[in-house]
Amino acid sequence: MTDPELERWRLVLGEPGDAALGRRPLAAETAARDAALEWLYGRDEELGRRGVRRAGGRYGGDGPATLTTVDWLDDISRLFPRDTIERLQRDAVERYEIHDIVTDPAVLERVEPNQSMLRAVLRTKHLMNPQVLRLARRIVEAVIRQLMDKLATEVRVAFTGARARRPSRFRQARNFDVRRTIKDNLGHYRPEDQRLFIETPYFFSRIRQHIDQWQVILLVDQSGSMTDSVIHSAVTAACLWGLPGVRTHLVAFDTDIVDLTSDVDDPVELLMKVQLGGGTNIGRAVDYAAQLIEQPRRSIVALITDFYEGGSEERLVRTVRGLVEQGTKVLGLAALDEQANPVYDRVAAQRLADVGASVGAMTPGELATFVAEQVGR
C-alpha cells in the first residue's frame, strides 16, 4: 500500500513524482484525481518550456480519452472537497480562461455558484446567447443572495445605532463598553480569585435615529480589474436602498457613464447590465456626481477605483477640491471587497487626499458603518 503522504506529493508533482513511489501504479481514486488535475494544469505553457510532462497530459499517444468540461466538473465534485473544487473552478475560468464553464448550458447546470463563477459570468456574458444567459443568471442570483444576507446583517447593526464616543447612562448589553469597564475597574482585581469585580460598568450611547436625509453617491470604476468592487458596490447600494435618512445613487463608469440608480433595488438585474472593461475617465464621473448633489453638506461621494486616470488628472483633482470645499464628504476607496487588498495609483490617490478627500480601503460593512455614523450626526 502506498503512503498517503507520498501520494499527495505525487499529485502535486505529476509524472516527475513517480520516482517517489518506486514507479508503483497509483490507487484508482488517486489516479482519477491526477487525471482531473492534469486536465486543468497540464495546459500550463510553463510546463512545456521547462520540459515537464505530467501523466495523461495533452499530448499525442494512446492514453485515456480527453475529458470534456462536463466530465471534468463531475469528476472534481466527486473527488475533491468543496474548497478545492472552488479553487479548481476559479483557476479554470481565471487562469486558463476555459470559457465554456460559464457559456455552455450543460456545464452551467453543474457548476457550483460561487464568487469566482460570478466574476466569470460578468466577464463573459456578452458571449452568451439568451438560453445560456438565463442559466448564468442562476449563478448571479445565488451568489448575490449570499452576499446580501451577510451584508444586510452588518447594515442593520450599523443603522440600529452606531456607537458614539460619549458614555451613556442607559444600560443595555449591546452598548456595553468592555474596554473602559475593564480599565476603570482594574483596582478591583483579586489575584487570589483570579477575578475582576466590576463596581462601575460603562456603556456607549447610540447615535440618534431621527435624521435628515443624506445622499450617498457610489461611483464605481467598471474597468476589468475592478470586478469585485462592482459586485460589492451593487450589493452595498441594494442594502442601503430604502433605509431611513439615506438616498442612494449608483453610477458605473469607464470612459462613459451609466447611472444604474433605477436598478439599485435589484442587484442581480443591475449586474447583468454592467459592461466590464474599457478605459477610465474618473474626472468625468466625479463631475457627474457633482451634478447630482442637492445638499452639499449632507452628501457623501464614494469613489471606488484604482485611481489610474485615463483622462485629465488635473480635472479630477479640481472637481474633488470643489466638492470638499462646499462641504461634501469625498471618499476615495481603492477596494471594496471582503479582503480589501488595494492595488492603486498611490500618486494620484495622494493628490486627492491633499485636497481633502479621505483615501483608503473599506469593506462593504465598513462603508455602511461610515455612512450610518455620518447620517446619524
Structure in words:
This is VWA containing CoxE family protein. It comes from Salinispora tropica (strain ATCC BAA-916 / DSM 44818 / JCM 13857 / NBRC 105044 / CNB-440). Residues 213-372 form the VWFA domain. By secondary structure, the protein is an alpha/beta fold. Among the domains are: 163-206, no CATH class; 214-375, von Willebrand factor, type A domain (Rossmann fold). The chain is built from 16 helices and 10 strands. The chain has helices spanning 4-13, 28-41, 45-49, 69-79, 82-95, 100-103, 105-108, 115-124, 130-160, 178-184, 227-240, 267-273, 282-292, 313-325, 346-354, 364-375; strands spanning 163-168, 189-190, 195-196, 203-206, 214-221, 246-253, 257-259, 299-304, 329-333, 358-360. Strands 7-6-5-8-9-10 form a 6-stranded mixed beta sheet, with helices on both faces. A two-stranded antiparallel sheet has the order 1-4. Strands 2-3 form a two-stranded antiparallel ribbon. The protein is globular, with a radius of gyration of 26 Å. Residues 54-65 have low confidence and may be disordered.
Chart the SSEs and their pairings.
Blueprint: H1 4-13, H2 28-41, H3 45-49, H4 69-79, H5 82-95, H6 100-103, H7 105-108, H8 115-124, H9 130-160, E1 163-168, H10 178-184, E2 189-190, E3 195-196, E4 203-206, E5 214-221, H11 227-240, E6 246-253, E7 257-259, H12 267-273, H13 282-292, E8 299-304, H14 313-325, E9 329-333, H15 346-354, E10 358-360, H16 364-375
Parallel strand pairs: 5-6, 5-8, 8-9, 9-10
Antiparallel strand pairs: 1-4, 2-3, 6-7
Pfam family, one: VWA_CoxE
Protein name: VWA containing CoxE family protein
InterPro entries: LolB (IPR050458), Uncharacterised_CoxE (IPR008912), VWF_A (IPR002035), vWFA_dom_sf (IPR036465)
